[in-house]
From TrEMBL, chain A:
Keyword check for Metal-binding: yes
UniProt cross-references to InterPro entries, sorted A to Z: FeS-contain_CDGSH-typ (IPR018967), MitoNEET_CISD (IPR042216)
Statement: the UniProt record of this protein carries the keyword Membrane: no
Location of the Iron-binding zinc finger CDGSH type domain: 23-67
GO cellular component term, pick one: cytoplasm
Domain of life: Bacteria
Record's keyword terms, sorted: 2Fe-2S, Iron, Iron-sulfur, Metal-binding
Annotated GO MF terms: 2 iron, 2 sulfur cluster binding; metal ion binding
Listed name of the protein: Iron-binding zinc finger CDGSH type domain-containing protein
UniProtKB/TrEMBL annotation, chain B:
UniProt xrefs under SMART domains: Haem_oxygenase_2
Lineage of the species this protein comes from: Bacteria, Bacillati, Actinomycetota, Actinomycetes, Kitasatosporales
Protein's recorded name: Iron-containing redox enzyme family protein
Pfam families, per the entry: Haem_oxygenas_2 (PF14518)
Domain of life: Bacteria
Organism, scientific name: Streptomyces humidus
InterPro entries tied to this protein: Haem_Oase-like_multi-hlx
Compositionally skewed regions (Basic and acidic residues) per UniProt: 321-333, 340-349
Signal peptide: none
Chain intervals for the UniProt region annotation (Disordered): 321-349
Length: 69, 349
């Protein structure tokens, strides 16, 4: 139950190809029990598991292609 | 007129047009004749520096130049002629995609064997090349996100709210120590560079000036708001993977913690920004003003066109082991000794 009329559901934007977009600030609890935080106005959470800055998106989900030579 | 003696010093002229504009600003000479302006090469040092001098009046100005020169109608007439030459050349020379989605799709593919400046610096860049890169980029990064602020009053609703949110993040989210321009100044300090605004204009090549002039051109004209939004999207989309490689270059060359942090921050921030700019800023703008789609495509594509020209210039010099910087101006034109000393240090380290 909302605690006050100002409370509203946290909105998350999902994409099949790309990160979850969450309104910041956020705290993310990782599998090992540690938490990381970001106070950016919006936060991109990795869903492809390829990010080197997990849980934050680093655009590693993008298609990779050889340049036509 | 009270002229502020502080502020950036006027850079040295690079030809007849920039020499005349440079003399006109502090009131020591006439503006260039129309024929002289018309004969200038659109991407050349002379025109690009003259345009840069005109645009800087809208940002920080110059020492001993009246702030009122910003709205001097005779100078604005010359600026318009310079802009016409530059924009006409860009429209003729930029290969453009058929539609916004095609242009975005190409930007969102990461080449496996990329050959850009960030690939070079992460793979084999030396410290003096990293320093040169920082000197060239300082013309923009010390005013990071400022040229794009001009577009805010020209947007509304969804596009405006999203653009303002991204700009707020670029400016540190209300915290002066997190302003991206400040983070870049910290990087420059790591590299032993002078963080004074405008300090390395004399050293910057015409290709660098063109990338910075493009932002001012698109930002200062409401008629080009679609192109400004496209340009901003292209910067944000390409920034995250490029910043990852530049962070690697900083780590590999032991540039220092602030240097690594500047690019690490951009990996994360711009992974968010590109999403917001694509969905909200471009999406919102085109929902309001679908007739601007062609301008958005031009902004997306012209950014890569000028970045590729800059990359070609930097890499051509570095692959030969040569400096990408312009030779220091003569003593009489100001700033020469200091720049030479700086460059000597760069090669020695």
């Amino acid at each position: 139950m909302p605690n006050s009329p100002a409370d509203r559901p946290c909105r998350i934007r999902v994409q099949r190809r790309g990160p979850l977009l969450v309104e910041g600030p956020v705290e993310v609890e990782l599998e090992d029990g540690t938490t990381v935080a970001s106070d950016r106005f919006r936060v991109a959470l990795c869903t492809c598991r390829r990010s080197r800055r997990y849980p934050w998106c680093d655009t590693s989900h993008r298609d990779r292609e050889r340049k036509p030579s | 007129m009270a002229h502020d003696p502080r502020g950036p010093r006027l850079p040295a002229a690079r030809g007849p047009v920039s020499a005349a504009v440079r003399a006109y600003l502090p009131g020591t000479g006439p503006l260039p004749a129309a024929g002289t302006v018309a004969a200038a090469s659109p991407y050349g040092d002379d025109l690009q520096l003259a345009l840069y001098l005109c645009y800087e009046l809208h940002y920080r100005g110059f020492a001993d130049v009246s702030p009122d020169r910003e709205w001097d109608p005779d100078l604005l007439r010359v600026r318009a002629a310079l802009e016409h030459l530059f924009l006409t050349a860009l429209r003729e020379d930029t290969p453009v995609h058929a539609c916004v989605d095609d242009a975005l799709a190409d930007l969102l593919v990461e080449p496996v064997d990329g050959t850009g400046v960030s690939h070079f610096l992460s793979g084999e860049g030396e410290r003096w090349q990293v320093r040169e890169y920082a000197m060239q980029r300082s013309l923009y990064h010390l005013k990071e996100a400022d040229p794009h602020a001009w577009v805010l009053p020209r947007l509304s609703g969804r596009a405006k709210a999203a653009m303002a949110a991204v700009e707020f993040d670029e400016w540190g989210g209300g915290r002066p120590d997190r302003v991206h321009a400040q983070l870049f100044a910290n990087l420059m300090t790591d590299l032993g560079l002078d963080t004074a605004y405008g300090r390395y204009v004399d050293a910057a090549c015409a290709e660098t000036l063109a990338t910075v002039n493009l932002m001012s051109l698109l930002g200062l004209h409401r008629s080009l708001r679609g192109a400004l939004v496209g340009h901003f999207a292209a910067v944000e989309i390409t920034s995250s993977p490029g910043s990852r490689r530049l962070a690697e270059a900083m780590r590999r060359t032991d540039a220092g913690p602030a240097s690594e942090h500047f690019y690490d921050e951009h990996v994360e921030a711009d992974a968010v920004h590109e999403q917001v700019v694509r969905h909200e800023v471009i999406g919102g703008l085109l929902a309001d003003e679908p007739q601007l789609a062609g301008d958005v495509v031009f902004g997306l594509d012209v950014t890569g066109f000028l970045e590729d020209r800059l990359a070609g210039r930097l890499l051509a010099a570095w692959r030969k082991g040569e400096s990408s910087l312009r030779p220091a101006p003569h003593e009489s034109e100001g700033g020469g000794a200091a720049v030479r000393q700086e460059r000597g240090k760069a090669h020695a380290s």
